[in-house]
Amino acid sequence: MAGLAAATTVAALTATPTQAVTGTTGVAKVFMVNPVQSSGNQDLTDQKDSATAVPESEYATVALRNLDGSGYLSGAYANVKSTTGALAFSSTNQFVYNRSQDEFEQVMAYFWINQAQEYLQSLGFGSSLPAILERPYDVRINQNGIDNSYMWDKKDLIRLGKGG
């Protein structure tokens, strides 16, 4: 039953929004759900972001929608920033990384913030209802050297901690 619920959630999150924003679409690999949950393997551990800690089968290939075409993870709803490593860049919009690469966390942040915003847009926010936010969120990855993620509403900024 949990598998069916997870599959239904994934299907709903990957559906095309009713109010599509124009922009460039890319391709990425992400985790659709936590790999421990999706694999059923309770023995999976972080292993310091090891690429081999999570089986390749737990990654999903997804469309990155609403990119601005700059080659960075920047678009209608999110602008990914990083002070701890290179920003993900692709002149072909192919953002395919594994979890050992800092860019993987950047892709995860862009994908899931975009998904959340597309869902809000599908409810009418920004079209038939007032917009919740009329510009992209700045998203900072691996901030403060600790596992502490939060949103700062005064600057419409999301900070994601190191995790792991």
Give a short synopsis of this structure:
24% of the residues lie in helices and 21% in strands. With 164 residues, the protein is an alpha/beta fold. A hairpin with a 4-residue loop joins strand 6 and strand 7.
Characterization of the model:
This protein is of the alpha/beta class and 164 residues long. The protein contains 3 helices and 7 strands; from the N terminus they run H-E-H-E-E-E-H-E-E-E. The model is unreliable at 1-20 (pLDDT under 50). The two termini are 29 Å apart. The strands form 2 sheets. It has a 4-stranded mixed sheet with strand order 3-5-7-6, covered by helices on one side. Strand 6 and strand 7 form a beta hairpin.
- Termini separation: 29 Å
Strand content: 15-25%
Low-confidence stretches: 1-20
Strand order of the largest sheet: 3-5-7-6
- Per DSSP, the total helix count is 3
| Series of H and E elements | HEHEEEHEEE
Which shape, going by the Cα principal axes?
globular
Oligomer: single chain
Q: Which structural class should the secondary elements be placed in?
A: alpha/beta
SS elements, strand count: 7
Largest sheet: 4 strands, mixed
Overall average residue pLDDT: 80
Determine Rg (CA atoms, Å). Answer: 16 Å
Structure characteristics:
24% helix, 164 residues, alpha/beta
Sequence-ordered SSE layout with sheet pairings:
Layout: H1 2-14, E1 24-30, H2 35-39, E2 60-67, E3 78-82, E4 94-95, H3 102-122, E5 137-141, E6 150-152, E7 157-160
Parallel strand pairs: 1-4, 3-5, 5-7
Antiparallel strand pairs: 1-2, 6-7
